[in-house]
Design brief:
Strand content: 25-35%
Number of domains: 1
Structural class: alpha+beta
Number of strands: 6
Largest sheet: 6 strands, mixed
Shape: globular
Radius of gyration: 18 Å
Order of helices and strands: HEEEHEHEE
CATH architecture: 3-Layer(aba) Sandwich
Distance between the termini: 52 Å
CATH superfamily: Gcn5-related N-acetyltransferase (GNAT)
CATH topology: Aminopeptidase
Length: 140
């Protein structure tokens, strides 16, 4: 068979599915089922419009938070903390080991640390001059 490697800056969701299919097949044969499940907490205004919230996914008995976003005018009012507490509660209710996430040095590292999250990894110069932090909170 003939194969070639093609650089693409316009890859599609179908390309992603094709790339991940053999990986998922391998993982299912050699590891536990991941039990992927999306998770969202929507922050909605008086008109029912989503203006922020928390987006994540359950997998391998952990909740990973992809995004936590609170509009600028609503920050420092406890909404981010409430969203995180609700996410933790959902993870505990599903008997998860813990919750993990990542954040940049220009984002919310002190916020997560105040909530009890501990750093388990750091990638320097991502972006250059900054860092990306990987945090976790394990449940008792």
């Amino acid at each position: 068979m003939h194969y070639e490697i093609v650089v693409s800056e316009k890859a599609t969701q179908e390309d992603l599915a094709a790339i991940t299919a053999p990986l998922l097949e391998y993982n299912l044969q050699h590891g536990p089922p991941p039990n992927f499940e999306p998770f969202a907490l929507l922050l909605q205004d008086a008109n029912g419009e989503t203006v922020g919230g928390l987006w994540g996914r359950f997998a391998y008995d952990w909740l990973f938070v992809d995004y936590l976003a609170v509009p600028t005018e609503l920050r420092r009012g406890g909404i981010g903390r409430t969203l995180m507490i609700k996410a933790e509660r959902a993870a505990i209710d599903r008997n998860c080991v813990g919750l993990w996430l990542d954040t940049f040095s220009f984002q919310a590292l002190p916020f997560y640390e105040k909530l009890g999250y501990q750093q388990f990894g750091k990638l320097d110069d991502y972006p250059r001059g900054g860092s990306r932090y990987f945090l976790q909170k394990r449940f008792a």
